[in-house]
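To start, an entry.
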Amino acid sequence: MTGRIYTGDEVTKDTTVECDVCVVGSGSGGAWVAHELVKAGKRVVMLEEGGYHTRREFDMTEARAFPNLYQELGNRTTDDLAVSMLQGRSVGGGTTVNWCSSFRTPARILKVWRDVHGVDTLSTEVLSPHWDAIEQRLHIAEWPESAMNENNKALWDGLGKLGYERGLIRRNVNNCLNLGYCGMGCPVDAKQSMLVTVLPDAVEQGLTIYANASARTIEWSGRKVSSVRAEVLDPVKNRPSGAILTVKPKLLVASGGAINTPGLFLRSGLDADGRVGRRTWIHPVVVMMAQFDREIRAFSGAPQGVYSHHFIERGPGKVGFFLEVPPVHPMLAATVSTGTGAWLQEVIEDLPKLQVMIGICVDGLLPEEEGATVALKDGAYSRYTLSYKFTDAQAEAFRVAMVEMAKLQFAAGAKRVMSLHMDPVILDSPSELSKLEAAEYGPLKHKIVTAHQMGGCPMGKDPAQSVVDPHLQFHGLDNLFVVDGSVLPTSLGVNPQETIFGIARWAAGHLAQAV
């Protein structure tokens, strides 16, 4: 039986659908769990708040991509504007717009989850068969050094000259043309996102997807979920059309991500005694820019091909970080930059010679860290407040990361290095690094961004410390499970998509037995 994908303009009146499993969200968690459940013979309905967009619309322009493919048009931030957040919003979720970096969960993180949080269900041995299958289906393989662009090569060369650990990133691509516009949707379907792999496979086997369907509330009583209510959105205006879609499943899987899944639960009166939305982790990112005499063209070529975990473990009480590079397109560069006026104009005019590195900090591993809190905005129906409690240890990590990135950029041949402080620190030689070391660090002192949102509904054995159990079942409800990045008890220290893929494929095995 073949399923189909409905868009908001096709659901013109109130509609009720019954099924075995309803999956809310079509990203890295929802897509894999739906795929496996359909293979197991279950009737699965998927709700996706974003639109259904394909390569025919992916014209490599930021002006089209951000409104169509990102939460809040790419402008989601914490309440104090200290952290800018990139988060996907379309069929395929974040996998449609991420930069393809694929890492298995580090063994040291799985050990923390087991020893500190009581997650005794997951291990490298348990997840490896799932990763093997996933990597084969998504063509995950190491991106060769010969294909890296100059932006990545600067990081690679700097790491080599300073003697730091370095590695080549594995990417989920097939017949990649090395265009560099992964963040705007792949125009040739080379990126093996959920949009072009697992979801079409599942639809062929019977999955029904409703795009432009914003899940608003879960109806529940006692220990049972009875239905989920979604507002149908106009695909063009992105506003409620007036039609309501009600899904009545035997089992509900929330896979909306680390911000939207807590939001759905809070709107539904499911707060787990105040734990829903708390301990949300974001891999806080700090950024350094550099000007070179040669062309870098960081807007062209695979966005990420090189990483370093040299600073991932820095000793007791220290926040570790890992190093990568981002793509540098005009709109993204201008909005991330903290400079204004003539300074910003000069930077953007010289965009082809601009190189950028990012230091991605690992949060959630120190006892004093609380991370972010997701809550409803003034009781509003669809808006969230997002607040993040930074620590002194994180400020120290920001300083070290930015200084080390400056060293790497100079080692790679940069003529000038610039921080993204509110008043940028500009260095013309390594002898001026003391200026960067003396600068202030922390929220609103410099730019902080995130593209990795985790936690908010963490798994754990103790119901007093977690939202879902080690099998991802919501504590206190028999037929509600969470399968997305929100279940991670800590951040990862690697890009998260393959972790979520693996957990979702693993979880589908026992979810199929629960229906």
Notes: The mean pLDDT is 96. Residues 321 and 472 are 28 Å apart (CA to CA).
